[in-house]
Q: What sequence folds into this?
C-alpha cells in the first residue's frame, strides 16, 4: 500500500474523514480516491506504448505533452518502470510503501490528464470510468490537497537552483529526490524503488 498524506485506503473510519472544499455536498460520500488512482494508472500503459511507437525524434515533445513535469527526465524506460512500481505498491497489501518526488510527480501528471479528460467526457464515458461519482466531475485540486504532501515538483528549475540550502529547507523544497525531478535527471534504480515503512504511517485514533 502507498503512503499518502492521508490514508486513501480507509476514509470512512472514525477520525478518518477528509475535509474537502467541494461545492457539491454529496461529492465526498461518492468519491473513492483509491479508485481514481487505479483507473488513472490503468490507462498509462497504453499512453506509454503510444509514445514508444512514435519516431524517436518526437519523444521529447510527447513527454512534454503527456507528462509536463515527470517527462523532464526524458526517459521512456524510467516512466514505464515508475508505472509498474506504483501499480505494484498500490495493490501490495502486506506492507506500506513510502514514495519520493519521482513517484508523486508521475502520479500528478497522470491524474491531471485523466481528470481533465474525464471532466470533459460524456455522461456515458464518466459512468464507465468512475461510476461511483454518478457523472459528477472530479475535484482534483481537493484530492491533491488532501493526499499529496506538497507540489514542490512544480517549481521552475531556474528558481529552484538559485535558492540556498537554507531557503530550500524553509520553503519545503528539501524533499527526497526533488533536485533530480526538477532538473530532469533520470532516476536510478534505488530512486525508483519504494521504501518499505517500518511502522504504521498514520495517527491511530482511539
A:
Amino acid at each position: 500500500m502507498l503512503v499518502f498524506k492521508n490514508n486513501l485506503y480507509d476514509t470512512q473510519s472514525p477520525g478518518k474523514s477528509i475535509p474537502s472544499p467541494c461545492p457539491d455536498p454529496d461529492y465526498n460520500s461518492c468519491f473513492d480516491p483509491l479508485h481514481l488512482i487505479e483507473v488513472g494508472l490503468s490507462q498509462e500503459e497504453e499512453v506509454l506504448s503510444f509514445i514508444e511507437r512514435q519516431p524517436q525524434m518526437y519523444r521529447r515533445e510527447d513527454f512534454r505533452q503527456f507528462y509536463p513535469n515527470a517527462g523532464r527526465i526524458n526517459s521512456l524506460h524510467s516512466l514505464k518502470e515508475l508505472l509498474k512500481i506504483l501499480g505494484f505498491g498500490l495493490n501490495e497489501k502486506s506492507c506500506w510503501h513510502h514514495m519520493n518526488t519521482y513517484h508523486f510527480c508521475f502520479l500528478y501528471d497522470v491524474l491531471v490528464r485523466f481528470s481533465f479528460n474525464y471532466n470533459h467526457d460524456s455522461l456515458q464515458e464518466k459512468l464507465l470510468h468512475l461510476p461511483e461519482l454518478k457523472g459528477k466531475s472530479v475535484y482534483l485540486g481537493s484530492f491533491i490537497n488532501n493526499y499529496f504532501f506538497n507540489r514542490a515538483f512544480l517549481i521552475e528549475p531556474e528558481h529552484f537552483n538559485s535558492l540556498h540550502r537554507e531557503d530550500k529547507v524553509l520553503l519545503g523544497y528539501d524533499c527526497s529526490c526533488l533536485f533530480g525531478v526538477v532538473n530532469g535527471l533520470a532516476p536510478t534504480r534505488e530512486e525508483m524503488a519504494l521504501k518499505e515503512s517500518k511502522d504504521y504511517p498514520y495517527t491511530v485514533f482511539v
About this structure: Residues 27-196 form one domain.
